[in-house]
Amino acid sequence: MTADDSGAGPREADIAPRGTGSAPREGDPARAAGAVNGVARADGAGDADDDTIAIRLEQLILGADRRYTPFQAARSAGVSMELASRFWRAMGFADIGQVKALTEADVLALRRLAGLVEAGLLSEAMAVQVARSTGQTTARLADWQIDSFLEGLTEPQDSGLTRTEITYPLVELLLPELEEFLVYVWRRQLAAATGRVVQAQDDAEMVDRRLAVGFADLVGFTRLTRRLEEEELGELVEAFETTAADLVAAHGGRLIKTLGDEVLFAADDAGTAAEIGLRLIETMANDETMPELRVGIAFGTVTTRMGDVFGTTVNLASRLTSIAPKDTVLVDEAFAEELGRTGEAPVSEADAKAAAEAAAGGAGPLPEYRFALQPMWQRPVRGLGVVEPWLLSRRT
To answer: In Å, what is the CA distance from 81 to each residue of 23, 42, 89?
Structure first.
């Protein structure tokens, strides 16, 4: 229980960078080092050389030595221990007890967050949310980079050096490049996100917006997990996620998240989402190493929080995916109506025929429909009532 949970005064110990998740014993620097760096063995024994390498790596990455206990860091930043604890836990850092494990950068981070609250730019709850979203995103990024770079680049041991001995110079070379690239990509994404907010018609649309939301799901993935080796399964998932991410980005959508055998994407308009869904099916169908795919897309109001999307529209897209036949795209009625409204598809073949006849009679140009829609049987969907799905395809 934290100090703010119990109502008691704050303890003189709290949080430090993500490690084993358990606090080291008081006065045990070796265990503290292991917990902070995530290298301590489960039995607490550890290895002195490994601890030394871990501390050297930490100093290289953070660019500073350990100087403060959590209490000292909070005091130096001019914030309460209670608020410092909330910030650090939100960032995903583990309890480490009363040991010197924090640096000047940790103090500065606390000071900046608290300063935003004091200046009235952020509420305290919003500042905690900023800390949590940043911590969760960068934690996943750091894990991915360590898995990819250190596993891949240190695999061949031709030099006779151990992976631990190779890690330090490798990190030393990569660190400045990765840091600059991270800031560049973040600025680009921030510019894109800001542009979407500015284009919103009113303040309500900044949180609750009308979007097309789609799921793409690999068919028979559970069976594959029993048949494939772990390495093969990992390669398949990585190939699927990479292909999906590239297609979504290339055609103007946004990849919200990946769930192993499933990806969630969103687009501002139905036409973009339709193109993405069909491209996913077509691309995967042409790859013999990939299982079949099914896609479900819905259109409607969506609530956005911390880069994720929520609401009935998202739930409906998920349900449509689960009932879609393999290698097909199912959409909901609102999505079909939106494609018809924007002229991307005829709502029915009768409409298409009437438009063609009108064009032939000189009443206007022949509509250039991109997509075709076929109504399917209505069916009850758990939690959402009766739904009329539509089969989406390209118009030939």
So the answer is: 17, 29, 12
Q: How far is 286 from 206, CA to CA, in rounded Å?
A: 38
Report whether 246 contacts 263 (CB < 8 A).
no
Is the confidence at residue 23, as pLDDT, over 50? Answer: no
CA atoms within 13 A on the CB side of 155: 7
Element containing residue 297 per DSSP (H, E): strand 293-305
Tokens 């919200």 correspond to 256
Determine the Cα–Cα distance for residues 97 and 28; give it in Å rounded to an integer: 10
Helices (H), 91-202: 104-118, 124-145, 151-153, 163-199
> How far, in Å, CA of 39 to CA of 351, rounded?
66
Which pLDDT score, from 0 to 100, does residue 301 have? 92
Dump pLDDT digits (tens) for 240-275: 998 999 999 999 999 998 888 899 999 999 999 999
Q: Under DSSP, is residue 170 helix (H, G, I), strand (E, B) or coil?
A: helix
| CA distances in angstroms from 368 to 148, 335, 344, 356, 364, listed in the order given | 46, 19, 8, 10, 12
Which residues are 277's β-sheet partners? none
Centroid of chain to Cα 118 = 30
Among residues 264, 263, 267, 238, which one has the least CA distance to residue 251?
267
- pLDDT tens per residue across span 333-388: 999 999 999 989 887 776 767 666 666 666 666 668 899 999 998 888 777 888 88
Backbone angle region of 311, left / alpha / beta, with phi > 0 → left and psi within -120 to 50 → alpha = left
Helix (H, G, I), strand (E, B) or coil at 329: strand
C-beta atoms surrounding 294 within 10 Å: 24
Tell me the residue type at 112.
Answer: R
Q: Model confidence over 26-70: pLDDT tens digits?
A: 444 444 444 444 433 333 444 556 667 778 888 888 888 899 999
State how far the Cα of 14 lies from the Cα of 2, in Å rounded to an integer: 9
What is residue 337's three-state secondary structure? helix
Residue 17 near residue 94, CB atoms below 8 Å = yes
What one-character DSSP code corresponds to residue 77? H
The residue with tokens 């940790």 is 106
Q: Which residues contact 54 (CB under 8 A, 6 or more apart)?
A: 33, 34, 37, 39
Helix (H) or strand (E) holding 302: strand 293-305
